[in-house]
Write a structure and sequence with these properties.
By secondary structure, the chain is of the alpha+beta class. The chain is built from 13 helices and 19 strands.
């Protein structure tokens, strides 16, 4: 018997464990992989974007249809609290020109080491290589290196991740155990995903090349940022936010000159070209680089000679695609445990005392700090309410809250 069990060693699970420990609960955290927070460490390799500094109402819009349910959780543990938490762990932060907040060290490893040290000091017990295999009535079952193990927690927080990047632990295997408990899950779908494009051979010379200073439009959504031409299609921060509509088959248009309106672009293209090739003309008048020019030729050859028509094409270049990349290549997933299957505390309606948090819930958000912030927020919310539930229902005895760190 233990006060509290947390299943999943990513950001949501670790934050749920912290909330439980600070409420005076004894906590065991299990993780199927040999080490904790592997996806967090991978994300931090290119710079760990913790959160984003912007007005609360604007921040919420990033969560689309999930904003209403996530709002109280983000109010309790939102961008300001994320920054305070990281700073309290000895990690100085800086805010970039776009409002994105990063540790000064940029990587995730110093923050994770400090966090695990803090949790260990609060009494957290961890069990790695413990794979959850479901319930036997109220007993939680695990496959471990030492065989089958069984735990009997007073409360449980599930923070099992989504269904992408299986090699890092997010394989969605937990879905079977929830379905067996009578929970109808929303189907997993790619989110924050690259786009599949069947390039012709001449694009191979541009694989790995970035498309900078562009705007992308799909359905009723728009995004600015960089895209990278890869052998499989288009990747990058400009593409990922459009996943919800691209997933539904929306056409993609790329604006290669977002700083200019159609009239200004037409004026530039109307300058005398002389004996210059069109590629040189585009390079000199618009600073359109080789990768962008190759993309134009790929998608719209032969190009129109009329400046106004060419300007319209460059403002809305149609980008043929075959949809999002496969689920396991996506940064995150939509789908999972619907909010209707839980009460306002994130406790499962069919399993009192069991709470859910993180990416396994049916919400999605773009990268740029939104995804990680909501994982931390839902973990904090589930952990805090699990501690309250255990005490209010006599599952655990009262204990003084920890004052550590």
């Amino acid at each position: 018997m233990t006060d509290a069990l947390v299943i999943g060693g990513g950001p949501a699970g670790l934050m749920a464990a912290q909330a439980l420990l600070e409420a005076g609960r004894k906590v065991i955290l299990t993780e199927a992989k040999p080490s904790l927070a592997r996806k967090l460490l991978m994300a931090g390799k290119s710079g760990l974007n913790l959160t984003k500094s912007e007005a609360a109402d604007q921040f919420l819009t990033a969560y689309g249809s999930g904003a209403e349910r996530l709002a109280p959780m983000l109010a309790a543990f939102g961008p300001a609290q994320v920054s305070e938490w990281a700073t309290d762990l000895g990690q100085p932060l800086f805010t970039g020109s776009t409002g994105r907040v990063f540790p000064s060290a940029m990587k995730a490893s110093p923050l994770l080491r400090a966090w695990l040290l803090r949790l260990s000091g609060l009494g957290l017990q961890t069990r790695t290589r413990w794979r959850w295999t479901g319930w036997d009535n109220n007993t939680v079952m695990f496959d471990t290196p030492d065989g089958v193990e069984m735990l009997h927690p007073a409360v449980t927080v599930l923070a099992c991740g989504g269904a992408s990047w299986a090699r890092l632990g997010s394989d969605g295997a937990w879905a079977d155990w929830l379905r067996s408990a009578g929970i109808d899950l929303a189907p997993f779908q790619s989110a924050n995903s690259g786009l599949s494009v069947a390039w012709s051979g001449h694009m191979a010379a541009h694989f790995g090349s970035p498309l900078k200073n562009i705007a992308l439009h799909a359905g009723d959504m728009s995004s600015t940022g960089e895209a990278v031409i890869s052998s499989r299609g288009l990747e990058g921060g400009g593409v990922y936010p459009l996943s919800p509509v691209l997933r539904q088959g929306a056409a993609l248009m790329i604006d290669l000159a977002p700083a200019l309106d159609h009239a200004a672009l037409t004026t530039r293209l109307s300058r005398p070209r002389g004996k210059q090739s069109l590629s040189n003309h585009l390079r000199k008048t618009l600073r359109l680089g080789p990768a962008a020019q190759a993309l134009v030729q790929e998608c719209a050859r032969p190009l129109p000679s009329e400046p106004a028509v060419l300007a319209q094409l460059l403002k809305a270049l149609p980008m043929p695609h075959q949809g999002l990349r496969p689920l396991d290549e996506a940064i995150s997933t939509a789908g999972g445990v619907p909010f209707e299957a839980m009460d306002d505390s994130l406790m499962l309606n069919t399993r009192p005392g069991t709470f859910c948090a993180g990416e396994m819930l049916d919400w999605e958000a773009p990268t740029g700090g939104y995804l990680l912030t909501a994982c931390l927020a839902t973990g904090f919310w589930a952990g805090r309410h699990a501690a309250q539930y255990g005490l209010a229902n006599g599952r655990v005895s009262a204990a003084p809250a920890s004052t550590a760190g």
